Each structure stands twice: as structure tokens, then as C-alpha cells.
Amino acid sequence: MARVFVYGTLKKGQPNYKHMINTAKGLAKFQGTGRTVEKYPLVIAGKYNIPYMLNIPGTGHHVAGEIYTVDDQMLRFLDEFEGCPDMYQRTLMRIEVVEWEGKGGAGEGRAAAEGIVECFVYSTTTYPPEWVSLPYHDSYDSSGKHGLSYVLRESRD
Questions:
Q1: What is the pLDDT of residue 104?
Q2: In angstroms, how far is the first alpha carbon of the chain from the final one?
Q3: DSSP 36-104
Q4: What phi-psi label fits residue 130: left (phi over 0), alpha (psi between -120 and 50 degrees) or beta?
Q5: Does 82 qualify as catalytic in the annotation?
Q6: How high is the mean pLDDT of the chain?
Q7: Which is more confidently placed, 144 or 120?
Q8: Backbone phi, then psi, for 82, in 5-degree steps?
Q9: Quick check: helix, strand or coil at residue 110?
Q10: Quick one: pLDDT at residue 106?
Q11: Of 38, 66, 82, 118, which one is the catalytic site residue?
């Protein structure tokens, strides 16, 4: 099992959360909430209003999201879903645990007790330079006050 931190449309209550609970795509178990230890720019970009965490450590905000443990099948699905490695790249990042619900072995409990876990995160280094000038967010909600509603894949032209 691998740990994955999701900050955008895959979170609970967001448009693509359905994929996280679709066992035909693999297993994903919610462990808790967290935020990036380092600051990163989280922008909403492109004509489909997609959230992107730009891989520029030290800039932006501590980005909030959810921590999951996933099996290999779900990890392969997420790689494909996230267009990895072209659109997003899957990298290990340190995540500060905000709330922990996870149950597991001693190592998992100890990591959570220390308050920091390593998770795979889908961020990007392959973005247009003008995205750096977009507003930075500390969390994402597709129906947030930014007014940039996410466009589902099935609704895109």
C-alpha cells in the first residue's frame, strides 16, 4: 500500500471523488487530513478550471488535502487519470497530519503520531509560465468563492 495526498477534485465532496471509492479501479482508504509541510502554489488553470499544485517549493501556501492509502491497482489508475508523467508528476512530499483516522501497523501509527507522513502527490513542473502569476489557494473546492467551476471530462469539448 502507498500513501497518496489529494488536494483537488479527488477529495470527498469534489467532482472526481467517485473514482476514489470505485473498487473496480482499486482500493483507496481514507486516513485523514493534512497539509503540505512546504508551501506550494495551488492554482486553478486552463479552460476546464483544473486545480494544479505547481512544484515550486517555498512559494504559495501550505496546501490542504486528504491522505489515503491505496493499493497498486489504484495507484496505476491515479497515474493514468492524472496524466502522469506528462500533465502531473507523482513525487513524494512531506505532509503534516491535521486529523488522523488511519488504523494500521505500528509504523503507520508512529508516523501519524509524529505529525508528518510521506505521501505521493500529483504536482506539476510542466505548466505554462503564466500560471505562476495566477492566484494561489491554500485549499480547493470546485464550487469555491473563486467562481471557477471545474469542468468534468465527460462535459469537455
A1: 55
A2: 36
A3: ESS-B-EEEETTTTEEEEBS-TTSSB--EEEEEEE-HHHHHHHHHHTTTTTS-EEEEEEEEEEEE----
A4: alpha
A5: yes
A6: 92
A7: 120
A8: -85, 5
A9: helix
A10: 46
A11: 82
